Amino acid sequence: MLVEAASLSDPTVHPLGRTGQRRYPPPGTAGLAGARLSFNRNSEIYGEGEPAAHLYQVISGIVRTCRFLIDGRRQIGSFYLPGDTFGLETTAEYTFSAEAVTDVNVLVVKRGILPSQLWELMGSELRRTQDHVLLLAKTAPERVATFLLEMARRVRSRDEVELSMSRQDIADYLGLTIETVSRTLTQLENESAIALPTSKRIVLRDRATLKRLNS
Amino acid sequence: MLVEAASLSDPTVHPLGRTGQRRYPPPGTAGLAGARLSFNRNSEIYGEGEPAAHLYQVISGIVRTCRFLIDGRRQIGSFYLPGDTFGLETTAEYTFSAEAVTDVNVLVVKRGILPSQLWELMGSELRRTQDHVLLLAKTAPERVATFLLEMARRVRSRDEVELSMSRQDIADYLGLTIETVSRTLTQLENESAIALPTSKRIVLRDRATLKRLNS
DNA sequence: CGTGCAGTTGAGCAAATTCAACGCTTGTGG
DNA sequence: CCACAAGCGTTGAATTTGCTCAACTGCACG
Prior knowledge:
Two copies of one chain form a homodimer. The first copy, chain A, is α+β, with helices and mostly antiparallel strands. Helices cover 30% and strands 24% of the residues of chain A. In chain A, strand 11 (194-198) and strand 12 form a beta hairpin. In chain A, helix 2 (140-154) packs across helix 5 (207-214) and helix 3 (167-174) packs across helix 4 (178-190). Chain A is globular and about 50 Å long. At the A-B interface, helix 1 of A face helix 1 of B. The structure holds a DNA duplex.
């Protein structure tokens, strides 16, 4: 991990874990501002159970948050793309760990967060998680199609998506195995719904088919 | 839908519930104030897509929130027990519909909500939903065991739980079919992990086994 | 005493997982 | 530059899990 700006030990961290406290920053400090950090692929940004001291905004790269069952099964909560903010917690400790899917640059957000921004952030977290629950009610092809459409929407891509994360990451997000993800992608390709120029690059050829699966 | 006129003597069942008498709220409702409403079993409290005008607190009975996929599959988001608050939304419209699992009395909360209370509420919604995602990563016996332990915890019951909701409700919450729920309960009973004096009443006989499944 | 509904149980089936093998890419050292 | 190992992804076969369909039971309510 590489620190490019201010120190993390700075004690003026906004106490995000606490509720009922309303701190309004002085005018002019609104917006996201803080130290910039780099993380290597697959390194941990923070761990489940650690004090939830910071908020992070993705500058470049992709971040995943995940939780584990005791036997090692992993559930990925979300992927965060550039511009997304992660690390918002309602408790004193992180309930998920956050890891770098690719090499990542993040901005540590220490202050200057308005309550309205926090509210907005929490709202999008909640909606994302609710959609995730609905996704897990679907069949394998439906989950994969939903995932592809979601990723295409989030990267504002017309019809091509770069899946930077591994098949294992996708599988743990969708609640499937890597084999099922792989087979489903192949099947979608055979149906001409998508094309797979490389294993990480996906062309959406027939959005209608995908949307139908999306339910 | 909110019904203003009280008509307790009216024996006909209003499709969207009927009003009840005003009473003093039960303990634990400090800060929340509003009209009290009654809804009959299986009536809709509000629908997905309606303007999210109100917050509700359960006084008595059980409420479920749910969403549907286009083909009719239903996903239950949460069950709300007495004391729980539901209807908190981050958008202008409800993303779930809310229905009465049993006959229900609720308090409509229109104002008097502090930002800190809203924050707390949103936080518990988020945590609940995150736990739901993790639950859906589990096997059928694990899901059922987790559900039983959660319900027992929430009703603060030593070792007996009244499952007021139907098997279909449980199945749609756990992402299983009623047959699988039924079979799993039978299996747990055969393993002496639980007892089923009636189909709706469950005795937790061996929490250790259930907790092991809970992962 | 039927009728209807909720829940249970059984048999067969389908979907997804597991286990295993294989291919393709990537990176490394000779 | 090539050889080779390691990791990731794909594919196939067997297995398991949970689902579908169907029958049956118990119970509440007329």
